[in-house]
Design goal:
Largest sheet: 3 strands, antiparallel
Radius of gyration: 17 Å
Number of strands: 3
Distance between the termini: 33 Å
Structural class: mainly alpha
Number of helices: 5
Length: about 150
Amino acid sequence: MIKLSYIFLAGFGFAFISDQFVKHLSLNGLRYESSYIDLVQVFNDGVAFSMLSFLKDYLKYLHLALILCLFAYLLWQKSFFKEHLLAFSLIFGAGSSNLLDRFLYGGVVDMFYWHKWFNFAIFNVADVLINLGVALILIKEFFFKKKAIL
């Protein structure tokens, strides 16, 4: 159990610290332009694609409630949590980093703007790590799950 705690804390810490570090650079003026991706600074007061931005300050409390509910559910579903420990550590670390932004800045700090071939939403490291965590869960569930014999 202690080993699992270390794995979770390592993944959580990696996600949280790496996201906050890149946000710190962005907040302190790091900018870059290329033909594929730009580094810009944007405060997103909504969720993905600025949805729910009409909730303003209430969104941070909804975000907090969602993280707490997911964590409580996973404590109840211990085997699923253990099976996908690294993925959930990335999701919780990145989600907590974005939540901290909501409390500190009133919105999430986004900085990566992909614009080659199509204009995509502006996103951050946490968004990438959340998607990576979800992808790890889906891949393991669909491709590496032992099938029960009927």
